[in-house]
Amino acid sequence: MSAGEKRRRIFRAGNEEERDEAYNRRDTKTGIYLLQDGSEEPFNIRLHLAKDILTIQEQDVICVSGEPFYSSERTVTIRRQTIGGFGLSIKGGAEHKIPVVISKISKEQKAELSGLLFIGDGILQINGINVRSYRHEEVVQVLRNAGEEVTLTVSFLKRTPAFLKLPLCEDCSCVPSDQSSGTSSPLCDSGLHLNYHPNNTDTLSCSSWPMSPGLRWEKRWVDLRLIPLLHARLSQYVPGTDICRQNAFQVIAVDGVCSGVIQCPSTDECTDWLQAIASNISALTKHNVKKINRNFPVNQQIIYMGWVDEKEQDSVQDRMYTPKFLALRGSSLFKFSAPPVTTWDWTRAEKSFTVYEIMFKILKDNELVDKRKHCFSVQTDSGEDIFFSVELECELLLWEKAFQMATFFEVERIQCKTYACIVDSHLMGLTIDFSMGFVCFDAATKELEFSNLFAVLHCIHAFFAAKVACLDPMFVSSRNAAMAPVVSATSTLTAPSQISKLKYAS
């Protein structure tokens, strides 16, 4: 086995114990945020990030005991107290295009409740009067005139408008709606014990609790969507544009299921979530690549793959970018519209390029083509520049290192490359050799013509970069060579003066 193959295997295998440990140690996060789903008003959801799935939950009131109950409506009778009245606060009304909603249940007042009312319940009927279309003040008047005992028909509203700021639990105790921070303890299911625990302060401190067996309800977080993270993609941008959402993002599963737009309260919190999700996606991808590579020969191993957004050449205003899946495998860069799953998928790439005949470049701020950040370009063997965008700077660095590694491995494997050229109308060959340098069968001062000039230039660049890399002790000796600093050829290497004599064939 050659030294080059040994280095490649060291890179691809790495320290498997460390990789597996990192795979199992991936971030988990939980938090309460707002979700904008289509044209609906934003509503509170809970996000839970695990190593391989993002769970989006919404609050709902469910029946947990008694006879099966198929209606979402509940009926409860409460009695007015001398001090404190019914002990309820309400918000909303028909003027806000929603029913009146219970926004607070007093902690101190005593009332004869059956344990069926929850913060977030919409009041549908009062003593049989349908108040769904009543304005706020009209509902208040009906309640004032309802007598000492009132029967309410309610239904929990999962998606109340954001301006209501319905209180969520913090350490299992509810705060008034005007003091709500909009956050929740990630370990607390709001109102989990409301129906049967008399010490719970999320509802009224009742003078007597129902003792007879019957329906029991609980307010819980229930799953709304499950987003598998393998090959999922993140986006802060309005689809197809360079418009970045403020403190918001969405996650799209490989099958197209979208999380909806998740809104965070601050830039830092949004960035934390983006980085955590991106880290888990990356770890899943690497773990999957490791398994796939067992079926491929050494010279066809996958170095890296993932989602990017490609800038359209003939873009229109609402479609400037299109999601693409790039994969660096063996000697080629593949571009897909969806991740390759089967061996046959690899033969159906939209385009493929030879890695040592293209040029990778991270775009500086003054080179960006629009408002998108974290962009890189790939100049093809025909001289065409293709622009790509990623979500985070860490993704940009991963792509840079992956291109460097793929180029080095392939140059080291082939050792030399010969291109046809024309010298004084005679067909000749220019050989770029990893060990010997440039070899041509004529004087070096002669001008050479190439029909594929950019491919030659990029190949020369690739060989120079690989030569420098193989002399870097950190690159050669480190078992984690992929993560070791590799000299960036785009910024440190200058082609020899002879390259200036190369020109297009007429």
Question: What would you note in describing this structure?
Answer:
Keywords: Actin-binding, Cytoplasm, Cytoskeleton, Nucleus. Belongs to the syntrophin family. The radius of gyration is 32 Å and the shape is elongated. It is about 20% helix and about 30% strand. It has a 7-stranded antiparallel sheet with strand order 12-3-2-1-15-14-13, with helices on one face. It has a 7-stranded antiparallel sheet with strand order 19-18-17-16-22-21-20. It has helices at about 5-15, 15-25, 135-145, 265-290, 395-415, 455-470, 475, 490; strands at about 30-35, 45-50, 55-65, 75-80, 90, 100-105, 120-125, 130, 150-155, 170, 175, 215-230, 235, 250, 260-265, 300-315, 320-330, 330-335, 350-355, 360, 375-380, 385-390, 415-425, 425-435, 435-440, 450, 505. The longest helix has 26 residues, at about 265-290.
Helix content percent band? 10-25%
Strand order of the largest sheet: 12-3-2-1-15-14-13
**Beta-strand level of the residues, as a percent range?**
25-35%
What class do helices, strands and sheet pairing give? alpha+beta
Ranges where pLDDT stays below 50 over 5 or more residues in a row are 10-20, 166-213, 478-506
CATH superfamily of the largest domain: Pleckstrin-homology domain (PH domain)/Phosphotyrosine-binding domain (PTB)
The N- to C-terminal Cα distance equals: 45 Å
CATH architecture of the largest domain: Roll
Write a brief structural summary.
Residues 1-22 are annotated as: Disordered. Helix content is 21%, strand content 32%.
Annotation keywords:
7-stranded antiparallel beta sheet, Syntrophin, alpha+beta, cytoskeleton, 3 domains, PH-like_dom_sf, single chain, 21% helix, nucleus, actin binding, 506 residues, 8 helices, PH-domain like, disordered C terminus, Pdz3 Domain
